[in-house]
Structures are given as C-alpha cells and as structure tokens.
Amino acid sequence: MIDTPTIRPLLHLEKGRSRRLRAGHPWIFSNEVAMTAEAKALQPGSLVTLVDAGDERLGVASFNPHSLIAARLLSRNWRDTIDAAFLAGRLRAALALRETLFPGGCYRLIHSEADGLPGLVVDRMCDIVSLQTNSAGMQALLPELLVALDEVLAPTAVVLKNDSPVRRLEGLEPEHRVVKGELSGPVEIVENGCRLLADLADGQKTGWFYDQRDNRAFVAGLARGRRVLDLYSYAGGFALQAAQAGATEVTAVDRSEASLALAEQAAALNGVPLRIARAEAFAEMERLTAAGERFGVVVADPPAFVKTKKDLASGAKGYRKMARLAAALVEPGGFLFVASCSHHMPAAQFAEEIAHGLSLAHRSGRILRSAGAAADHPVHPWLPESAYLKSLTLQLD
Ligand code: SAH
Fold first, then answer.
1. Distances (CA, A) of 28 to 12, 17, 210, 282, 350
2. What is the DSSP string of 160-211?
3. Nearest-angstrom CA–CA distance, 9 and 368
C-alpha cells in the first residue's frame, strides 16, 4: 500500500466525537464518523486522515467501513507516512522494551494497540516470527510489515497464524501460511531458563502462550519437592518448568495428542521426567479423585470457557466446576493455580466462581497471588478491557 499523507482520503468525525480520541483513546466507532458515500466506498483497511468537525487533522488511522471499530489510530501526526520505515520504527521500540524485560529473543514482540500497531500480534521465537493480523488495516499493511520485520529482525521464517475469531468482524477469512522461509518441525524457545517446543504448523494461537511466563515461574517456585498435575497442559509450559524446579513428579494432561508429544520432546531436551495423560480434563480429575490421588500443586489453565458474551453464564459455571474438581486433588497445604483467558469473563466474577468451587469441594484456603499476563503483553491505558488473562494462585488447607 502506498501512502502519501497530502493526498490521503479524509475521514470526518461527527461533531463532538473527537474528544475520546484527543484524550488518548486509539479507536473511532462507526457511529462517530460521517459515513458519506465516499467513506463507505473506501476499501476496508484504507489509510485515512482523521478530521474533526472543525476541520482539524487529528492523525492517521486505518479505516474499515464495515467494522464497528471503524478507525484505528496509527499516529497522531497525520504527516507521518505509513510505510515499512514507519512500521520498522514501531517494531524497534517494541524490541527495545522486550529486550529490557526479557532479554533473549523469546517473547510477544507486538501486542496490538499498546505497541502502537492496532490489530497486530507478533510473537518472536528467536529467529522465527509468528504473527496475526486481526484488522483489515493490518492485513492491508502486511507487505510493508514483512519488509519492516526483515529490516529489524531478519527472521529466518515468518508464519501467518490468522485463526483469531475477531478477524471475522473485520471481514477477514482465516489463513495459515508460511510467508517467509520454511518451518522444519517444532520451534525451540527458552522461557524462564526452560527449553520448550512450539508448533507453528498446527499449534494453538500463535504457537506459544507467552502470557503465562511469570505465572509459570511463580508456580514452578512452589513445585519443588511436590507432586504436580498440569491440566490443559498444551505443550507443557507449566509442567516442564515445575519439573525443572525440582518437582518430585509431574503429569501433563491434555486432550491433544500432538501437544503432549511436544511436551514429551521438550522434557527430553531438558533432561527432566514427565508423565503425560491424554484425557478430557474434567473426567480425568474425577478419575484421579476417585483413585485417591493427591498433588502438592495443581494447575488448571484451560481454553476460554466464555467465548462470547452469550456464553458468560455457562462459562462461569465451567470455571466453578473446574475449581471444584481441581481443589479436590490438592493435598492439605498444597497449591492450586487457576486461570481464565476469556475476554468476556470479568476478573471479579472469575474469583467468585473459584471461591464457590472451593466451597463446593469443602476446601478453605487463601489467595497468594492474583496476576494477569506478563509484561510483554502491555495494555493500552484506554483499553483496560483488553487485559484478558486472569489467574489466581491459592494455598488450600
Ligand atoms: N496451559 C497451557 C495453555 C493451555 S491452552 C500453557 O501453559 O501453555 C488450552 C489447552 O487445553 C489446549 O492444549 C487444548 O488441547 C486443551 N484442551 C481443551 N479442552 C480440553 C479438555 N476438555 N480436556 C483436556 N484438555 C483440553
């Protein structure tokens, strides 16, 4: 896409609709723009100069006439040209922050609006990059983005893992392809000193859940000398770090055979033992309880139970049941870690469901730590609702 600020289309905001943007918010909703025939005719993802009712130019944004979030701000300086050099500047700033936070090349490099690149998620696995373009604007900028990534990181491979449901709201189809280089098997990453394997060909989301990094470290710190059960283990992020920290025995439970195979391979890389169980988590918890098994640490980090607002009631019940079943497996004095990555599940309600689950299991205890995603998932100050991850670590009596 070629951008020339002086001839870029103008997008007029309705009177009084620029206040939130001026205050710092990065979005303009569809009911806030003057939806003229010209505006409606713009291609989804077009770059526009935002103009208020008094003809003041407020910045440059990408525009999608068919999305509720109509415009996403890229820069408050409308004279900025949105090209590979602009994107490279944003990538460099994000890279400097990540290398300050978590030196070593394995992290979420770009977390959308909070890194000044709305709709874009970039996970870096050392020389390999996994990305999601979740808005029509970012999708349109993909060619420039690939040039910018080459300039800043020179990755050996770049994978587009566009399976996020939010793409549908932007009129984008799912797509999964290697856009640079090639993938030969799982990709090795290092997190908290542990070697782990991510599958960028088939794995979930971008291939690795870096958001749990700090939580995995905290849980690993509790695991020494204890028996650990990691439910919904995926490729073993919690399990392997607990094993490395000196757990006496670690079992990873997941319904996906491919994920467990990766966890096993990574266990071998680290030279730590790992037991795996392919099972449905609820059924496995019931089976283990009936068999009288108890653990010093139980981790339950499931997929989102609340996928849309409509699912809130049923999803909330799911978290309650999960807490009830998991609590029954924790030995007295042991620890329970529970998480929710459901965007639509409020943190306070999550904590309530967990508390209910404990009481249904006739267990008492205390919350030791309540935490969200690691700092490589920063939050835009005007989009606090984008902080989706919630977790509680408890000790049970
Ligand atoms: N805890 C993981 C991330 C979990 S992602 C980590 O730290 O990286 C969710 C995982 O739950 C996926 O691997 C998926 O295969 C698994 N899963 C989904 N539903 C399940 C179920 N009913 N029983 C067991 N595993 C399930």
1. 11, 8, 30, 42, 30
2. EEE--THHHHTT---EEEEEES---SPEEEEETTEEEEE-TTTSSTTSS-GG
3. 53
Regarding the beta carbon of 301 and ligand 1, being less than 6 Å apart is answered yes
Which pTM was predicted? 0.96
- Those residues whose C-beta lies under 8 Å from the C-beta of residue 185, and which sit 6 or more positions away, are none
For residue 258, report the distance from its CA to the centre of ligand 1, in Å.
Answer: 11
Is the Cβ atom of 115 under 6 angstroms away from ligand 1? Answer: no
Q: What is the pLDDT of residues 248-299, one digit of tens each?
A: 999 999 999 999 999 999 999 999 999 999 999 999 999 999 999 999 999 9
CA–centroid distance, 371 to ligand 1, in Å, is 19
Q: Which atom of ligand 1 is nearest to the CA of 209?
A: 8
297 phi and psi, to 5 degrees? -140, 130
The tens digit of pLDDT for each residue in 288-337 reads 999 999 999 999 999 999 998 999 999 999 999 999 999 999 999 999 99
Active site residue 106: no
CATH number of this structure's domain 5-75: 2.30.130.10
Alpha-carbon gap, residue 18 to 16, rounded angstroms: 6
CA angle 235, 240, 243 (to 5 degrees): 155
Q: Please work out whether the CB of residue 212 comes within 6 Å of at least one atom of ligand 1.
A: yes
Give residue 42 CA to ligand 1 midpoint distance, Å: 41
CATH architecture entry for 84-184: 2-Layer Sandwich (3.30)
Please state the CATH superfamily assignment of the domain spanning residues 188-396 in this structure.
Vaccinia Virus protein VP39 (3.40.50.150)
Q: How far apart are CA 354 and CA 360, in angstroms?
A: 10
Q: Nearest to residue 278, comparing CAs of 264, 250, 257?
A: 257
Nearest CA to ligand 1 atom 21: 280
Q: Which amino acid residue places its CA nearest to atom 13 of ligand 1?
A: 234
Taking the domains of the chain in order of start, what are their residue ranges? 5-75, 84-184, 188-396
